[in-house]
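>> Question from a student workshop board

For tomorrow's exercise we were told to take the sequence and the ligand below, predict the bound structure, and bring the output to class. My setup keeps failing. Could a helper post the expected result so I can at least see what it should look like? The ligand is pyridoxal-5'-phosphate.
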Amino acid sequence: MTTTAENASILALLPSVDELLNTETAKGLEIDAGRERLTRMSREAIAWLRSEIRELPGDNRPTRESLLREAGARLIQVWQRSRSSRLRRVINATGVVIHTNLGRAPLSDEARRALNDAAGYCNVEYDIRTGDRGRRGEQVESMLAELTGAESAIVVNNCAAAAYLVLSAFAAGREVIISRGELVEIGGEFRVPDVLARTGAVLREVGTTNRTKLADYEKAVNENTAMILKVHPSNYRIVGFIASPTLKELSALAKRKEVLLYEDAGSGALFDLSPSGLGDEPVIKDSIVDGADLVTFSGDKLLGGPQAGLIVGRREYIDHLRKDPLYRALRVSKLIYAALEATLRAYLRGTAENDVPALRMLAADESSIEQRCWLLIERSANPDLRIEMAEGNSAVGGGAAPLAYPRTVLMFLSHAQLRAGEVERKLREREVPVIARIVDNKVAIDLRTVSEADEPELIAALSSL
Ligand SMILES: *Cc1c(COP(=O)(O)O)cnc(C)c1O
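>> Workshop helper replied:
Here is what the output should look like for this input. Compare the format with yours to find the bug.
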């Protein structure tokens, strides 16, 4: 490409970085952005302007002043773009309760307070009674044991880490038997066969996609078998002509053959969630009763706590994991223990259904959601906006209960001037973004996942459209 003489003379009018930094616009951003970042962003704004200088609107040749003004406007845009990508609170109006892209389970008020308390110094590895060093996670581990009936428990960064630790510690260089119907991909690159391979375990597939029998497992056991692995098909179901042995049957086989029985329950539940339509989710306590030696599950799926991988089971195995150097690399922070402990307290009190937001949202019935819709519509004043209610479905999300779509009441928005895509974008681009769905070409708001504390903000968002 050649630069014509005229282009070269326009380029000569572009402001320098120092000139831009000296404008009132730039000075106004300096406190928030900091001098160094502002310099970098000014360079970016000028480079952006340079690349488009030939397409600037207006017939008149740009002047030094007009280009400086334009550079200032672009600097503000560069700054706003960097700010909008920061991690911040959003309102989840999608109705997907365990929304992985929006941070999975929202924490309870009690867990938020605990996070805040632990943010400074806290007794994470200190025994207040004796004044000596204490063991990290002891309290949470005993709560988990109590809630699941397991002998012992340990916590790592997430359920993927939990599976990785268990397989590395007990199956490296040995065989792991798994049904062909359970070679799961969870999403986010977690594929059971790949994880197995990475830990050095050898995958021994048995049965078929839809049917696997106890005899298939039995035939596969040999002197190099480390364990039988049962993976919960979290995000899919195989229906029709299907069969697989129960955990109890597998447990009897594992005992007889002296191999380990490990269940990756994925989400799992600490009590039976069938009243919320989630009867398919394995209840961890039942897995322990049925004889699993180790069970892993996530902290931030249906349990409703922070991101964590929970491992429960036989004491000798958990103790073995605790001594593995990999555990040190996968352990969680004081903040996670704090939030997890507060979440588990609600379960021990028997008030989890009410106190843990994910469970409360899942249990909400259509009529209570409809009631909230009416109140919200009454309070949002926008003559350009029509809000209609219609029955619809929420989703569980998070790779759990893929067939459960709780019935809900949706609010469909239609705007006198704006198309659905524009309404959706305007809601998303607010200071506190409101994330909505588009259903049948209309923006749909599902209050199931909007907390009552978020309602004033949502009302302000609807009123401003
Ligand atoms: C979700 C899930 C995982 C991964 O859990 P993370 O906590 O996201 O790491 C592993 N296994 C199963 C069966 C799952 O459902």
